[in-house]
Amino acid sequence: DTGVSQDPRHKITKRGQNVTFRCDPISEHNRLYWYRQTLGQGPEFLTYFQNEAQLEKSRLLSDRFSAERPKGSFSTLEIQRTEQGDSAMYLCASSIILPVEAFFGQGTRLTVV
Amino acid sequence: AQTVTQSQPEMSVQEAETVTLSCTYDTSESDYYLFWYKQPPSRQMILVIRQEAYKQQNATENRFSVNFQKAAKSFSLKISDSQLGDAAMYFCAYRRTGTSGSRLTFGEGTQLTVNP
């Protein structure tokens, strides 16, 4: 499978715990994005990497959120001290410069109880 | 800041009929990209069609076409000969051009139901 891969698909965690999600982009894609989607809403941008550099972060990305992309390959998104409001689908997407389309993974659904 | 608005939370269409989904956006940029993405119940977002703002010709992909009205900042999606597999949430999205500003700004989505 050469698409964007996300792991895990589902995560249930207790409030206050830390969680980490992984995204493996399409191999030749140098751009990687994280979005958050709550039920019935469109995805909201969180952060963007070009290669290993994190070039843009949304105000939605509070201090409890951190993302990395070591060596410009896979990326991780960590949420510390999870809150119930963090419950959402976390989507990863990747692209190259041209064409501009972003390809999405299947997402990680986080439930904080 | 750019915003994207989809005013139809839900739409339905009979199989083999045509349906149009609406999208409006707000931007001060003159060059940008617009997209329609489809998100079936499996949740993976799939690109349906793309439009470059500098192109006057409306994009077409098989049964999917757009009506791009730049002055009105309107970008509607027409699905012809609707099929059961077209049932999904459809999102309109905007992206600036250039190597920076790569983020997509999405609308709220339109849930499309296809009736047999």
Description:
- With 113 residues, chain A is mainly beta.
- In chain A, 0% of the residues lie in helices and 50% in strands.
- In chain A, strands 2, 4, 5, 6, 9, 10 and 11 form a 7-stranded mixed β-sheet that branches. Chain A has a 4-stranded antiparallel β-sheet with strand order 1-3-8-7, with no helix packed on it.
- The mean pLDDT of chain A is 93.
- Chain B is mostly beta strands and 116 residues long.
- Chain B has no helices and 12 strands.
- The A-B interface holds A 31, 33, 35, 40-45, 48, 50, 55-56, 58, 89, 91, 93, 95, 97, 99-107 and B 4, 33, 35, 37, 42-47, 50, 91, 93, 95, 99-109.
Gross morphology of chain B is globular
Helix and strand element order of chain B: EEEEEEEEEEEE
Shape of chain A: globular
Which structural class should the secondary elements of chain A be placed in?
mainly beta
> Structural class of the secondary elements of chain B?
mainly beta
Radius of gyration of chain B: 14 Å
Major sheet of chain B: size, sense and barrel closure? 6 strands, mixed
Mean pLDDT of chain B: 93
Low-confidence stretches of chain B: none
Oligomer: heterodimer
**Approximate helicity band of chain A:** under 10%
What is the average per-residue confidence, as pLDDT of chain A, rounded to a whole number? 93
Output the radius of gyration of chain A: 13 Å
Beta strand count of chain B: 12
Topology record:
The complex is a heterodimer of chains A (113) and B (116).
Chain A lengths: L4 E3 L2 E4 L5 E6 L6 E7 L6 E7 L2 E5 L7 E4 L6 E5 L8 E8 L7 E2 L3 E5 L1
Parallel strand pairs in A: 2-11
Antiparallel strand pairs in A: 1-3, 3-8, 4-5, 4-9, 5-6, 7-8, 9-10, 9-11
Chain B lengths: L2 E3 L4 E5 L4 E3 L2 E3 L5 E8 L6 E7 L7 E2 L2 E6 L4 E6 L8 E9 L8 E2 L3 E6 L1
